[in-house]
Amino acid sequence: MSTLSARSLSVRLGRNQALSGIDLTLTPGRFTVIVGPNGAGKSTLLRALAGLVEPTAGSVLLDGRPVGRMRSAERARAIAYLSQGGQVAWPLTVASVVALGRLPHGEAPDALPPSGSEAVGTAIAAVGLGGYEDRPATELSGGERARVLLARALATKAPVLLVDEPIAALDPRHELVVLEVLKAHAQAGALVVAIMHNLTLAARFADEIVLLDRGHLQAHARPSEVLTEARLAQSFGIAAHIAHEAGGFVVVADRPLPQA
Ligand SMILES: Nc1ncnc2c1ncn2[C@@H]1O[C@H](COP(=O)(O)OP(=O)(O)OP(=O)(O)O)[C@@H](O)[C@H]1O
């Protein structure tokens, strides 16, 4: 079991109060999507959950233990974190980049044990990059590179996976491929959290949605409870309507509302 929780979590970045008094409990087997307008504090929350940002008040606990006090290798085995718009600095092959996900297990990328090779192969196949293993990762498109980095995070086989805007650079087909991977990962027992701006895809794939606005937690519930026309107006400043379809709903953004 890996339960991740924020308790009265506040984070100040320079002069900005990025997060204020967040109370949140996330559980295994659930795919949670964090939404909110630009600057709401989504990336800061994800980084704090990963133990990469020191809370100014409150705490982040993994199974009751403060993540900030875990040793980095232990934390990396427990929590795989993928930042927004990640880059690959060295001309390593796709297989070598994904194999870096095994480092927290003490496995060298060029000498993986069978279990490590299997984790790498499965992750590459899951993101639809079979056949790309020997390509230099620096010679890929932005969307291909984003999927390589997601595969690296998956290859870690951490029980917690935190990903910041995993579909931002992807074409429509690969948006669905990646969201299906994340959903399946959660259904297999992982605790999966992703930041997304596409509210319709968030509604379709998420088990639960966290809505942040100006550093505050506005809602944490099922998509249909969070993505209401009133909340879209209040938090995103848009007039929108919800179109109901068989098996789900579509968020149609009609126009920006005048700023208060
Ligand atoms: N290094 C920093 N120093 C000072 N303030 C920062 C820093 N990084 C972010 N902020 C501020 O903290 C707040 C939250 O930023 P954060 O990146 O978490 O927002 P976000 O919801 O992820 O936004 P976006 O949707 O634009 O990616 C914003 O007001 C931002 O300007």
From TrEMBL:
<dbReference type="InterPro" id="IPR003593">
    <property type="entry name" value="AAA+_ATPase"/>
</dbReference>
<keyword id="KW-0813">Transport</keyword>
<protein>
    <submittedName>
        <fullName>ABC transporter ATP-binding protein</fullName>
    </submittedName>
</protein>
<keyword id="KW-1278">Translocase</keyword>
<comment type="function">
    <text>Part of the ABC transporter complex HmuTUV involved in hemin import. Responsible for energy coupling to the transport system.</text>
</comment>
<dbReference type="InterPro" id="IPR003439">
    <property type="entry name" value="ABC_transporter-like_ATP-bd"/>
</dbReference>
<keyword id="KW-0067">ATP-binding</keyword>
<dbReference type="InterPro" id="IPR017871">
    <property type="entry name" value="ABC_transporter-like_CS"/>
</dbReference>
<dbReference type="InterPro" id="IPR027417">
    <property type="entry name" value="P-loop_NTPase"/>
</dbReference>
<dbReference type="GO" id="GO:0005524">
    <property type="term" value="F:ATP binding"/>
</dbReference>
<dbReference type="Pfam" id="PF00005">
    <property type="entry name" value="ABC_tran"/>
</dbReference>
<feature type="domain" description="ABC transporter">
    <location>
        <begin position="4"/>
        <end position="239"/>
    </location>
</feature>
<comment type="similarity">
    <text>Belongs to the ABC transporter superfamily.</text>
</comment>
<keyword id="KW-0547">Nucleotide-binding</keyword>
